[in-house]
Design goal:
Oligomer: single chain
Order of helices and strands: HEEEHHEHEEEHEEHHEHEHHEHEE
Strand content: 15-25%
Distance between the termini: 72 Å
Shape: globular
Number of strands: 14
């Protein structure tokens, strides 16, 4: 029996600090779009109204994700104000490829000892991601879990919900032979493949987070912490009045594993491997790690973060629209007939 009267704080959980932090989070969340949001952050559940007069048969689309071991880069740099953008991107991009407009986002942050400054920086990044995606930061959870995490480390998860009219769901069902694949550029490594990235950079090359890499023109930490690009608004603009029959978010598994998720089984895609310039960071990783081409394609986005599948006669108009919005985009392949004995992707 303890001689001292124990409290939750003695066990490592400070409820008063957490309650104070909620007030700060509320102010940050209020800076994101609030249309549809009902009530204040802090209730048991977050409320959102679906009274959208322009949607006849609304369908909700949801996604949940994290940022993987890219968190380790944030820990190493002690920089936490951009990792939240990655978190939002990984969720809203998956919602957007169904043709849905992201409505709201919730986050989950867990750490051993609550560090208010770190949580505030993370939430600022999440709010920035929500602004880019034009969705509301509607709620979340911050958990203090003593002894579960190393000092200075934490975990993140995100949850996004979007809405689309049933008749406008983008599901690949209209894709036919002859359709063109339009690749939209990534901002870098995004949030996949970081276990291999870290092995190459810190185990093989023995770099530290502040090592300057001449090929990249910046430190390795600055390059790797570049936020994942958010494509939701770009997608909404091109599907509004142009025929986009399939969309693929290029995440874990690279182009190989993600594009075939939207292609009919009777077809295959033919990718022209020299049709775009692979960014320096991927060339650096390939050479430094002696990574085979096939492994690079299955691990990284290689500079293409999103692919739109469109009819051939609309491809140039879609390209013009994308480029007018400041997106670097180009035709990287096409859809061709597939023999039942063939795989669904061919690199040429």
């Amino acid at each position: 029996m303890s001689d001292k009267s124990l409290t939750y704080a003695d066990a490592g959980v400070d409820i008063n600090k957490a309650n104070k932090l909620v007030g700060t989070i509320k102010q940050i969340a209020k800076q994101t779009p609030r249309s549809g949001v009902m009530g204040e952050i802090g209730g048991f559940g977050a409320l959102y109204s679906l009274k959208l007069s322009n949607i006849e048969n609304p369908v909700l689309v949801s996604s949940t994700d994290g940022v993987g071991t890219k968190l380790k880069i944030a820990f190493m740099m002690k920089k936490h104000d951009t990792i939240g953008i990655d978190l939002v991107a990984m969720c809203v991009n998956d919602v957007a490829v169904q043709g849905a407009k992201p409505l709201f986002f919730l986050d989950y942050i867990s750490m051993g000892t609550l560090v208010s400054k770190t949580v505030t920086e993370i939430i600022k990044g999440i709010a920035e991601g929500c602004k880019q995606a034009h969705c509301s930061l509607i709620g979340g959870e911050t958990a203090e879990m003593p002894d579960l995490y190393k000092k200075g480390e934490y975990d993140l998860a995100g949850f996004s919900v979007g809405i689309v009219d049933d008749s406008k769901i983008v599901d690949g069902s209209e894709i036919r032979m002859g359709h063109k694949l339009i690749g939209i550029s990534s901002s870098g490594v995004h949030s996949n493949g970081f276990s291999l990235v870290r092995k190459i950079c810190f185990d093989v090359l023995k770099l530290n987070i502040n090592s300057r890499v001449p090929e990249l023109g910046k430190t390795i930490g600055e390059e790797l912490l570049t936020p994942t690009k958010i494509y939701s608004e770009t997608i909404q603009h091109i599907i509004k009045d142009l025929p986009v029959h399939g969309l693929a978010h290029i995440t874990g598994g690279g182009i190989d594993d993600n594009i075939i998720r939207v292609i009919p089984k009777t077809c295959k895609v033919r990718i022209e491997s020299g049709s775009w310039e692979i960014p320096p960071v991927f060339q650096f990783l390939k050479q430094a790690g002696n990574v085979p081409d096939g492994e690079m394609r299955r691990t990284f986005n290689l500079g293409i973060g999103m692919i739109a599948v469109v009819p051939e006669d609309s491809a140039q108009e879609v390209l013009q629209r994308l480029n007018a919005m400041g997106e670097t985009s180009l035709i990287i392949g096409d859809v061709v007939e597939r023999d039942s004995s063939q795989t669904q992707i061919e690199w040429c």
